[in-house]
């Protein structure tokens, strides 16, 4: 693949630089003479560390926003102050810009409608992963070791961990009293209620038997006694 790519770009450059019939005929002859491309001197070996760092840096843009909320230091309605790590000095820098400049820098990362950032296929496809992940895990347990070159199924991070990593705050900690909250209900502006703990309790999800056919071990509280807090940090209104 590299040989053919190098051949294509080299011939294209030659054709653009020298606009003569002789050059056109020569390139056509070279295409016929070297159908498998031109030799590219690429040595096999380990990927340089700087390339690994670049890959990790670019991979973040596949799923996360260009800047996390915790990096925004101040917003006064006219200007935005935020910090970033300078790639040349490797030091933290703080910059203040007007709102429109800040928005302009952010919208550069908005992809066109319908553009795919990354497409999963094979075992990583959404339909296949749910079907085969447990089978693969069980197979690896039976083997007793990981097979070189095979898929390794990694458990993904939970929403709480991802949100904390991006925003710098724990969504399950109350912003007022500092106590840990329990997830009671999830509401989506488009799909409505997508998770309701009370409905699970009413459906008997947590009921357990006592060995004599009787059910017990589950207490139900009234919705009126529950203080439902937002999953996201709350801000007091003036």
Index terms:
single chain, 238 residues, alpha+beta, three-stranded antiparallel beta sheet, 7 strands, extended, disordered C terminus
The domain tally reads: 4
**Helical segment tally?**
7
Beta-strand percent range: 5-15%
- Biggest sheet record: 3 strands, antiparallel
Mean residue pLDDT = 75
Return residue spans where pLDDT drops below 50 for at least 5 consecutive residues: 210-238
Based on Cα principal axes, name the global outline: extended
Q: What is the oligomeric state here?
A: single chain
Radius of gyration: 28 Å
Biggest sheet strand line-up: 1-2-3
From the N-terminal CA to the C-terminal CA, the straight-line distance is: 62 Å
Helical coverage, percent range: 25-40%
Let me know the number of strands.
Answer: 7
């Amino acid at each position: 693949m590299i040989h053919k790519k190098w051949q294509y770009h080299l011939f294209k450059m030659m054709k653009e630089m020298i606009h003569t019939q002789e050059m056109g005929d020569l390139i056509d002859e070279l295409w016929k003479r070297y159908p498998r491309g031109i030799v590219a001197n690429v040595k096999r070996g380990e990927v340089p560390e700087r390339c690994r760092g670049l890959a990790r840096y670019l991979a973040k843009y596949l799923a996360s926003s260009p800047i996390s909320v915790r990096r925004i230091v101040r917003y006064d309605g006219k200007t935005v102050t935020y910090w970033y790590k300078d790639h040349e000095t490797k030091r933290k820098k703080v910059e203040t810009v007007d709102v429109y400049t800040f928005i302009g820098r952010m919208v550069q990362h908005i992809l066109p409608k319908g553009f795919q950032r990354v497409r999963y296929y094979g075992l990583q496809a959404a339909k296949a992963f749910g079907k085969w992940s447990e089978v693969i895990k069980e197979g690896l347990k039976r083997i007793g070791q990981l097979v070189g070159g095979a898929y390794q199924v990694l458990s993904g991070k939970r929403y709480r961990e991802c949100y904390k990593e991006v925003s710098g705050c724990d969504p399950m900690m109350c912003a007022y009293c500092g106590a840990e909250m329990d997830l009671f209900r999830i509401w989506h502006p488009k799909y409505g209620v997508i998770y309701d703990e009370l409905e699970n309790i009413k459906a008997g999800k947590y009921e357990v038997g006592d060995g004599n056919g009787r059910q017990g071990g589950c207490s139900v509280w009234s919705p009126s006694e529950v203080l439902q807090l937002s999953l996201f940090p709350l801000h007091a209104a003036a």
